Amino acid sequence: MPLVRPFVATVFLIQAGCQPSAPPEDVATPNDARGARAVQATGHVDQQFGSSKRSAAGEERSMADFVDSMEALVARATENRSQLTVRERALVDAYILDFETVVSGLDNFFRSSAVATETADGLRLLGAPESAKVIDRACALFPGGEPPEDPMELGLRLGDIADELEALDWEFSEASENEDLRGLTERVWLAGEPPE
Fold this sequence. Notes:
Layout: H1 6-15, H2 33-48, E1 52-54, E2 60-62, H3 63-80, H4 86-112, H5 116-126, H6 129-140, H7 151-160, H8 162-178, H9 181-191
Antiparallel strand pairs: 1-2
């Protein structure tokens, strides 16, 4: 079965005008700050597609190269995560986190990721400490600070913390945008090594 192209799906959703649902009293419009950022993000994505950038080794790399490389890393992580380097795990986690939170928020991220606490460490490694703090706070909502592994128990816990997670969705969205998590992930991939 072919892997989903998270970045392409994210672009499609943004261009289609899809955004996470806002709390009723706090709906984003094109005239407020969040609406303006969404419009800006769409333009940023349009500019990235079809463009190419130079890697640390001086080779031309396109956005399609980035997506293909990330899909290969996701496939390797699915097969045996322990064989990935720390840098590769951080890239995969950030890539999946970005996709899942754009599609359905932190709730969906927790349903699809067994490594939520490790993701926060990877975000710090990549240079996104504010995004990491939000993930840490979301993990802290679970007993023991980690989401349960059992899917049934996880579903029940997510139902119990739904309101808190929705509030953290907005905080994560703002933090990841301020830190340019998607761009940061791409730059670390282009550099070929984690930032110091």
